[in-house]
Specification:
oxidoreductase (chains A, B); ten-stranded mixed beta sheet; homodimer; elongated; threonine biosynthesis (chains A, B); Alpha-Beta Plaits; 14 helices; Homoserine dehydrogenase (chains A, B); Rossmann fold; alpha/beta; binds NADP nicotinamide-adenine-dinucleotide phosphate; HDH_cat (chains A, B); Dihydrodipicolinate Reductase, domain 2
Chain lengths: ~425, ~425
Amino acid sequence: MSDKPLRIGIAGLGTVGVGVVRIVRKHAKLLEDRAGRKIEIAAVSARSRDKDRGVDISHYDWEDDPVAMARRDDVDVLVELMGGSDGPAKAAVEAAIAAGKHVVTANKALLAHHGQALALAAEKSGSVLRFEAAVAGGIPVIKALTEGLAGNEITRVMGVMNGTCNYILTRMEATHQGYNALFEEAHKLGYLEADPQLDVGGIDAGHKLSLLSSIAFGTQVDFDAVELEGIEQIELQDIEEAAEMGYRIKLLGVAQMTGRGLEQRMSPCLVPAASPLGQLEGGTNMVVIEGDAIGQVVLRGPGAGEGPTASAVMGDVIDLARGLSIPTFGIPAAKLTAARPAKAVVPAPYYIRMELDDKPGAMAKVAAVLGEAGISIDRMRQHGHHSPTAPVIFVTHKCARNQIDTALEGIGKTKVVSGAPVAIRIEEV
Amino acid sequence: MSDKPLRIGIAGLGTVGVGVVRIVRKHAKLLEDRAGRKIEIAAVSARSRDKDRGVDISHYDWEDDPVAMARRDDVDVLVELMGGSDGPAKAAVEAAIAAGKHVVTANKALLAHHGQALALAAEKSGSVLRFEAAVAGGIPVIKALTEGLAGNEITRVMGVMNGTCNYILTRMEATHQGYNALFEEAHKLGYLEADPQLDVGGIDAGHKLSLLSSIAFGTQVDFDAVELEGIEQIELQDIEEAAEMGYRIKLLGVAQMTGRGLEQRMSPCLVPAASPLGQLEGGTNMVVIEGDAIGQVVLRGPGAGEGPTASAVMGDVIDLARGLSIPTFGIPAAKLTAARPAKAVVPAPYYIRMELDDKPGAMAKVAAVLGEAGISIDRMRQHGHHSPTAPVIFVTHKCARNQIDTALEGIGKTKVVSGAPVAIRIEEV
Ligand SMILES: NC(=O)c1ccc[n+]([C@@H]2O[C@H](COP(=O)([O-])OP(=O)(O)OC[C@H]3O[C@@H](n4cnc5c(N)ncnc54)[C@H](OP(=O)(O)O)[C@@H]3O)[C@@H](O)[C@H]2O)c1
Ligand SMILES: NC(=O)c1ccc[n+]([C@@H]2O[C@H](COP(=O)([O-])OP(=O)(O)OC[C@H]3O[C@@H](n4cnc5c(N)ncnc54)[C@H](OP(=O)(O)O)[C@@H]3O)[C@@H](O)[C@H]2O)c1
């Protein structure tokens, strides 16, 4: 037990910041027992001082400027919960590090864009930078990967890590409504970020994936190399066709080190409905970690919200109170390598859907194009004829994405389909 | 980076010990990067020096006596992988602690029986005692509970933590064979401990539950208070009846702090087939942790085997190399309270099966007994008459275990059933 309390300064008193204040107030004794010392809030900062935040902050010093707060002598740890890849979040974190203070943040955007620079700076100044809450909310996945599974060579990391997208996709299936209706619903419920592209464009989930990749493979965070595809193009019909064949569509992140470089992609995929990933409902997140000794570990839990996110923040704060010291991404930042991004993703089966003309010879033409692209067919489904076209679904055997692209282009040229054919990867999970 | 390697001494070179040697040899560079220093094996110990272990141990000093090895000046960490609650495992761990060395062990029996004494001794001598591999094999659940979720008041912990029992139960359902046939199969496959009661009697899983309880609730390990019930009494018929009603039978551990004391039980339960716990196949383990901030987190992974268990051991070793220092059960041993064991478990619905005489009035008599015990019925199933008796299944509404016991006794006295009625708890997971 140390007599010295750990004093934190909280920058940002929104959903997560208020959650942290609540835990510190409610569990003072428990936290002291577990951390081996008192955890105290020295100061807080947010935009508007007078906002009623539903929690009493009158005992803490107020700072208008988060950078000034980060530099205070009585702040041992900056808890950054403002958000944004640049601006005050970055400035405050940099100021804290420069002053040799530790940092806990929930800010995936900041780390996805500046993780390497911040990690280098932190190690230089003897600061520890932790970010459990930035990935998969309350699930202690950063800890599992950086610490618990550190004896493994990690072979693959997968995750459903944007609750809003998973909410939209599972609600489309449940309510038989299209994407736009569910987007509106998610918006009304306040599930979408101010810039919805962060969610439905896969950017937020891509940020998270880039952080997991770095730890898993000892590489510098490379968000720009994440192949991003959002969920806006997913049609109800695809969700329902997939379901009939025993699949569900998830916005799935996959990171793996291949012979051709580091593959990082965040895109809608079909996964078996009976798999743990397939069964994920609503806002719940799931991360799958595969390593050479462990085999596979699956972690599942709430991906967002006040309590879960604050729980992750407090886990980091308690670690720091206990004296934990680990490089930001698990190995010293200077040793993180610049991974060559894989130019082509590993082959997989694909789901292909098209509206085929209900004319003699149409199917033969499409089959010929697939054959020319070297794609062999595992299963085919053709539906009742709503002439003049009928939906046709192919499930291919494993093939390369460029074969699929060649085939899609070729199918367009046959003039026997209406609209553009759709292809979605089937991930073997 | 430290120039000083962390030197480990491995006592026990069986399944897990050999796995640890393999990881240290295979991943020397990776471990050094992650741990911040070299991890070296200084010495090893086992019973027979000449056994071919499939891995080269000629570079390491051999010690016949694990206690002597624990005391060596060139051993910083004793890695105890011999097993057994007493004998050489206990002696070696005590010797290491007395010498101020850290200890990593996979030995749940040792900790379930002597955890409190060892934790006190370790803290007195400045040793750190870690045991990730002792609970749920490769799943980093001790870390999740002690560190990642340390900001939560834990409300409930549940787990399927004996792979052999889960193998037997899921194979009974898949192959329509009875318990004895599958027990034999598990035996032939080498899945059973030398004393099979440790597995099928629920003892091994009970050990694990008692360790999780201690961390979750800040209480002294109290294995004797775990209400233990094995799987030997589970009949194929119960598994199949449960399946038809949408349940599966699992050997489920539940620990929760109630108004009436600490409830710890390890017993067969019905869980919804569609729940994560219900979907668990074969040797896979699952732990569910519920806390006031996080809500629910589910961790799933391999519960045993060379690679997964060695992975957990290495996670602990790397933590020690990085300087992690946490009390054994998350808070200082002297602060762990002696929890009052709950005398009665929390109410739940129950599954009751009996062979009812195929005579007028028989059902009325049973229904009367249930009513007198204050038990109300949610669902009832009666099967085709294989006179002179027919199986009847009741699913009750929530009631107390003593109401069930009263009813079972009363039903016996009615003389309208043949054999003893069976009652299995339905756990709301
Ligand atoms: N919400 C979640 O479930 C969740 C989950 C995982 C990670 N995160 C991450 O956690 C962080 C915070 O999220 P949140 O949902 O809590 O955000 P939020 O509710 O929008 O709160 C943001 C807070 O930051 C303050 N702030 C914004 N700009 C500021 C500035 N220039 N100077 C000082 N304070 C400023 C705001 O002040 P005012 O209140 O005065 O406007 C507000 O208190 C983000 O990085 C987010 O990505 C959130
Ligand atoms: N196996 C798993 O999957 C698993 C999973 C989780 C936890 N665990 C735990 O890990 C521990 C080890 O399990 P295991 O499966 O590796 O056991 P194991 O294969 O039976 O190996 C035990 C080892 O301990 C050595 N040993 C036994 N008594 C000894 C003594 N008196 N002095 C010196 N060495 C002695 C044996 O030596 P010889 O080889 O010379 O006979 C053997 O190498 C146990 O506590 C177990 O509960 C195991």
